[in-house]
Each structure stands twice: as structure tokens, then as C-alpha cells.
């Protein structure tokens, strides 16, 4: 379909997951550009929702399990940012079936509401064959549905978040970063803020981004290179070790994630040079650690308890 207005019109962008990491990054990027934002929340009185309102976003109540609420939230918007709670996230309460239903239901509601453009956030593991990991293969199913929608769509496939390196499960506070890849295995990474800025760029040029699937990363680093960057940023030595085999063997999902990194499916395939040429703002790991990642780094250095389940 052809939108009836130019990309610079003043209709809002509806953002799902607005109080979460990715949705919150999209809200920040859009507000920074003066774009009207309709932040989709479940509880407008929650502190995170009130903080969005204070920053200039308009909050609207909707739930991805309720298509009619989505229709109301999307009507009059010129774009929708779609991200779902992951069925692989501990404590999410989501099943694989839920994630597919929510992801397909969002784009269906956008079509019903007359929204001309949807940006869907997927995952970089989707770019290959089926992985056998539910919360990646769910996104492949949603991508297929998104592409068939009779509107402009853009799919982002973010690499592993830089933020995940500083979760309690990495045990950084003990002086050794533990993660899923081998010390010599490079893994692509992206700052969550950059997902927001790329999504904002897509909404600013809906026609130019229509039909695109973007493998999104800002850097690639081995375990040893990550440890070197952390040592520099922390001002003290940080070692690196892959999660022990007994931990990977005891947790089938963590073991599968490590195997997907080993065979390259989860290591990332983004063309970093091309991405930096198109999006010069993309942060590499050192820049992120010196900037938006600095508070997380200092907090992680004070946390010694490890919880590998957080790495899911």
C-alpha cells in the first residue's frame, strides 16, 4: 500500500515494549528527533510508564494478548515498533506459541488500523536454518508473517546485546568474565540504544526501508578481546573464561546457545563496514563501555554472584 502522507508527517509512532530495553531505546531515539510517540503500556500508572509520560511520550493502554486493544492503540499512527517478550526469557511466562501469536497479531492489528509501516525486532540467529531453540525459531515464524503483510515492513535482527555482558550471570565482579563463546571465538554485539536509533531511521524513511531485513551489530569481539576492553574501561585486570562444561551440560538451553555460537549461527553475520557507512552512530564495544555502558560496568564490578540463567 502507499501511505497518504510523507514520512515527515506529525502522526505518532506506536512503540510496543516501551518500558523495556528495546522499546525504551526506540522511544528515546524518536523523542530525541522530535517525533510524536505513543508508548504502548499495560499499566499507565507504573513508575516506568509515568517516566515516559514525563519525557513527552503519550502512554496508551494495550496488551499484545488483546487484538482489539492493539487496534485502538495503533489507529492514527504512522508506524508501529513491534517487539515481544521472549519465550526464552526467564520469568516471562511466555510460551513459544504465545510469542508467535503476539508477533503475528501485532502486524495484523497494524494492517487493520491502517498503519503504513511496521518495524519488527527479531534476532540474528534467524538468518540461518532453524536453530532448534524455541525463542529463535518463533521469530522466524513471525518474520514470515511480517513479510506477507500488505504494508511496508522492516525487520531488524539485532546481535547479542552489549548489555548482556554485564549481567550478574557473567560473574564480572569476581574479576573473570564468563560467557558462552570460546576465548578465541568472535561474537557480534550491538548496543540496545543503537537498535532504537536504527528503528528511528527506518521510521524517518519508511519507503527507503520497506522490505529490508537488517542484520544489526556495532562490533565483533572474541572473549579475550571483550576482556581486554573491560580491563581498559574498569582500570583493573579482567580475565575471560567460557562457562564451564558442567554448567553447559546441566542446562540444555545454555548448551545449545554455546553450540550455536561455535557453529556460527549465533555469532552474527552482519556486514559491519556497510552498517557503519549507513549508520555512523553505531557504537563499538569500547565506545559503549566509555559512554552508556559505564554505569552498568561499575554496577557489574560490584556484583560477585553468578546466575547463568540470566544469560538466556
TrEMBL record:
A Pfam family it matches: NmrA
Family of the protein in this entry: Belongs to the NmrA-type oxidoreductase family.
Domain NmrA-like: 12-250
This protein's UniProt keywords: NADP
CDD domains referenced in this protein's UniProt entry, alphabetically: NmrA_like_SDR_a
Name by which UniProt lists this protein: NmrA family protein
